[in-house]
Write a structure and sequence with these properties.
The complex is a heterodimer of chains A (168) and B (182). Chain A contains four helices and seven strands; from the N terminus they run H-E-H-H-E-E-E-E-H-E-E. Chain A is an alpha/beta fold. Chain A has a seven-stranded mixed β-sheet. Classes of the chains: A alpha/beta (168), B alpha+beta (182).
């Protein structure tokens, strides 16, 4: 009789512990599932990130081309640090339009005294408006500042922009 | 007096002649494709590359501003310019300086398509390596279009990182250079 009672008690405890551990397992599985879904969602979000259309992005600076060019000097990174990754509107007169190899157009504004220049490559959705620009036109171009770098080939300062669009 | 005019005329003629032999553009394109089966994002174009070609000596040079490589994905662009990859704050420019090794088979004075080989020093991420690549030259009047496609091993230029190790970025990206000289 005593043996039977002990056996029943042990069985009860075993069943309770089993139920408890099943509860924990369920919780761990749910938490793991949530983490997996969240991780996948973050990965999907990062994978599908795209740059915004520059036309819709608020400019950090609006500058005059000549004064802006004068801020860039060889072996001096002050201007590059100031404008790093900024969206800038540059106002000036077009010196030259240059066809890139893929039939897109780059616009150049050159300082006639020094031959230093600013060059703008356009985002795909703004290529048609870029193709209408001619040398001599007064323009407002908004773009993502890349870098001001001295060209050893041309022996001039070059200031490069990407993902550009016309501001007006 | 006549002698001075003659000397000056000769100097002007030779300067003009030299200038005509060296052609430059500020809108050459360098495309970079490091995509893999795991990731189709690491590819970019730089359309404001400075290039020069001397049709007399066959000397050829390129300079690309690293931060002007334009990716579609902001995160990849950030990684590309970051300290582990191109470290573009420290090394803002990638450049090539070399020459056409079989210049005698390329006639820049006659229209046509010519195959060539370009050899020289490629400097990227602060490391300079000798490279050799096939090139195509299309001559049409005074216009010359030069194209070349080659691969580099990123490890040769001390570029590494977890994404490369994980197979998300190719260890030997394809680089395509196109320049139109007018």
């Amino acid at each position: 009789m005593f043996k039977h009672c002990t056996f029943v008690a042990v069985l009860k405890v075993y069943k309770m512990e089993k139920a408890k551990s099943k509860g924990w397992l369920k919780k761990i599985l749910i938490a793991g599932g949530i983490l997996l879904v969240a991780g996948a969602a973050i990965a999907w979000y990062l994978f599908n990130l795209k740059f915004d259309d520059t036309k819709t992005v608020k400019a950090d600076y609006t500058v005059n081309a000549a004064a802006f060019l004068n801020e860039f000097k060889p072996d001096d990174s002050t201007a590059n640090v100031k404008y790093k990754d900024k969206i800038i509107v540059v106002n000036g007169r077009v010196s030259e339009t240059e066809a890139a190899a893929d039939a897109s157009i780059n616009i150049k504004i050159t300082d006639t005294l020094t031959d230093n220049y600013i060059i703008f490559s356009f985002q795909d959705q703004s290529l048609n408006e870029a193709k209408k620009i001619k040398a001599g036109d007064s323009v407002s171009i908004k773009g993502s500042f890349s870098d001001g770098v001295y060209s050893d080939i041309l022996e001039v300062m070059t200031v490069n922009f990407k993902r550009c669009t016309l501001d007006k | 007096m006549k002698k001075t005019i003659l000397v000056l005329s000769l100097a002007v003629v030779s300067a003009v002649s030299f200038a005509q032999k060296k052609k430059t553009t500020t809108s050459a394109t360098v495309s970079f494709d490091a995509t893999t089966k795991l990731d189709a994002l690491p590819k970019a174009d730089n359309k404001t590359v400075v290039a020069a070609l001397n049709t007399k000596t066959g000397a050829i040079a390129f300079e690309a501003v690293v931060k002007n490589f334009s990716f579609s994905n902001p995160k990849i662009q950030e990684h590309f310019n970051g300290a582990q990859w191109m470290d573009s704050d420290k090394f803002p420019k990638a450049s090539f300086k070399g020459k056409i090794t079989n210049l005698s088979t390329v006639n820049f004075k006659a229209d046509g398509t010519y195959s060539g080989t370009v050899e020289g020093d490629l400097t990227m991420h602060g490391v300079t390596k000798k490279v050799s690549a096939p090139a195509k030259f299309v001559v049409s009047g005074s216009n010359i279009t030069a194209t070349s496609e080659f691969s580099v091993k990123v490890a040769d230029f001390n570029v590494s990182g977890p994404a490369i190790g994980a197979g998300k970025v190719a260890t030997d990206p394809k680089i395509t250079v196109t320049a139109e000289f007018k």
